[in-house]
Amino acid sequence: MSSILLIGLGDLGSLVLELLAREPHVERIVVGSRDRERAIARCNLARLGALAQGYEPSIEFSEIDLAELDWTCKTIERFAPDLILSTASMLTWWIPDLLPAQQAARLKRAKFGVWLPVHLAPTLRLMEAVREVGYRGHTLIAPYPDVVNCILGRLGLAPTCGVGNIDEIVPKLRLLAAERLGVVPRAVDVTLVAHHALERFAFSGADADTPPYFLRIEQEGFDVTRDVRAEQLLLTPYPLPPGRTTHFLTAGSVVRLVKALLSDEETFLHAPGPCGWPGGYPVIAGRAGVRPAPIPSLSPQEAIAINERSHWFDGIERIEEDGGVVFDPEAAAVLHETLGYLGRRLAPDEAADRAHELVARMVEYASKHGVRIEQRAARGPHP
Ligand SMILES: NC(=O)c1ccc[n+]([C@@H]2O[C@H](COP(=O)([O-])OP(=O)(O)OC[C@H]3O[C@@H](n4cnc5c(N)ncnc54)[C@H](OP(=O)(O)O)[C@@H]3O)[C@@H](O)[C@H]2O)c1
Question: Model's pTM, two decimal places?
């Protein structure tokens, strides 16, 4: 029986809460959010839904603002959870899609990486708190772990690993390979090394310039990568509903990883950002933590190099030894032209200020184009 501190009760966090509430081995869930009213209502819904389905989890709410280090430290110490899962971000990935099509398309040219400050800022504060209190449990990160965890790793603050991303591509591959082989998906094993940047190609189809990756597919232990034409399977379009509805996929992957980390047995799966590495890898997860799984014919250095080369496809030129991030000049120029935001390099200790600026400029830009965005980042803590 286990306890989880779930921080961030937005779209993904709320969905994960609903699924975890129906997991028999999760005994206690503490939900950390800044928004007392919304969170209490969400916790009530999860409790009742779980009970209606036959489960009786303990779900409680605790006010938390990751911007407040002492507060976060006290919350971690007070609840001493087995696992912390953070879905806290100052501006989530699907917000630019709320803009009119023309403006959304213009912003998309900047690529995902330029939004790094809004994902890094709360996560950095969380990991500082984790270090401060000497927390020994597992820490899972939802906000852009392919890059955020790598920066945290350079700062000596690496979480256990990230969630989603690479592990959202793998089910597609298992399903399509199984169809091609005429077997059930559980007979198929996938070994994939890939970055967040590859995900849109894996669902929308190939481009002239596709990020690098490593892929091997096995059936009952035999390499069938060529037989199933694995590359074609990877890049075959596989339409999904647009926007945050895909969080059902992410949440499924989160719950499997959480269960693996709370289990006495080890599970082979995929996760982004283990050990503070860039991008995603096959990993082995169990109560002792997460470690990269050995890959036939690919060394850890080669795997890391694949994902380092992939940063560029997300608009990130490089991550430096001190955790500083240099953005691709073209990507940075798009944000300058559209939002008036200037940011070619980001030092980790500037993340919070830069995130606030980015959010404020985005809110202003959206409002100019007739879209009202709730400015979460501006909301203060409730004493
Ligand atoms: N890895 C993956 O595969 C994957 C998939 C989907 C999404 N994501 C990422 O997961 C994150 C969450 O996505 P979402 O769509 O759920 O976002 P969302 O709906 O905007 O929710 C974000 C939450 O973060 C909380 N938050 C922001 N600043 C905080 C702070 N200082 N302290 C505590 N909480 C804070 C907000 O809390 P309040 O309620 O207190 O305002 C809000 O509930 C984003 O980074 C998104 O890009 C990752």
Answer: 0.96
